[in-house]
Amino acid sequence: MIHNCSSCSLTEVWFEEDGNDVYLNLNRVATEEDLEHDHYLEYEGQTIETIRVLVAFCPYCGQKLANGKEVVVPQFQHHNFGGRK
Q1: Which of 18, 47, 55, 61 has the greatest number of C-beta atoms within 10 Å?
Q2: What angle do CA 78, 82, 85 make, to 5 degrees?
Q3: E strands along the chain, which residues?
Q4: Is the dihedral of CA 70, 57, 23, 75 positive or negative?
Q5: Contact at 8 Å (CB) between 76 and 51?
Q6: Has this prediction a pTM greater than 0.85?
Q7: Stronger pLDDT, 6 or 80, i.e. the higher one
Q8: 13: closest CA among 32, 23, 1, 26?
Q9: CB 16 within 8 Å of CB 2
């Protein structure tokens, strides 16, 4: 594990390393209310959205995560798996 932050332990948040880069990954999962409003969703707990953000520090506790000394250029990936946009 790259970083173990107590603020991330109860949610679907984790860090991944790719070379010298560290990414914060966030999942949004379906609730009962989401299932009622989106017929594309099949079950509670299903991943609705995934976001991957390049980070140098943990946004929750401030610990430095990136090994390199280069400037982090903001970038992200967003995937929406539900029917609602």
Answers
A1: 55
A2: 70
A3: 13-18, 21-29, 47-55, 76-80
A4: negative
A5: yes
A6: no
A7: 80
A8: 26
A9: yes
User: Which residues are 76's β-sheet partners?
Assistant: 53
69 or 27, higher pLDDT: 27
Q: Give me the DSSP letters along 34-56.
A: HHHH-TT--STT-EEEEEEEEES
- The CA-atom distances, in angstroms, between 11 and each of 54, 71, 83 are 19, 28, 23
Between 73 and 29, the more confident residue is 29
3-state secondary structure of 30: coil
